[in-house]
């Protein structure tokens, strides 16, 4: 959605065509939502069993790996 908005904004600047566009607040909300989903996805992958970030962290305290 953000890429489409940027492409349509470029069309407006170069050719003067106005089809559809988000305002400044709309762009901010789209980026905010996208970043929130990105962070949630990274945290979900980090917490999933067998992910590269959790391998080796399942040992009890004091145990050698």
What would you say about this model in short?
The protein has helices spanning 2-15, 24-47.
Write the layout of secondary structure elements.
Layout: H1 2-15, H2 24-47
Overview of this protein structure:
By secondary structure, the protein is mainly alpha-helical. 58% of the residues lie in helices and 0% in strands.
Properties at a glance:
65 residues, mainly alpha, 2 helices, 58% helix, elongated
**Shape annotation:** elongated
Query: Regions with pLDDT < 50 over 5+ consecutive residues?
Result: none
Arithmetic mean pLDDT: 78
Characterize the biggest β-sheet. Answer: none
Q: Give the topology string: H per helix, E per strand.
A: HH
Rg over C-alpha atoms, rounded to the nearest angstrom = 21 Å
Q: Count of DSSP E strands?
A: 0
Distance between the termini: 46 Å
Percent strand: under 5%
SS-derived structural category: mainly alpha
Amount of helix: 55-70%
Number of separate helices: 2
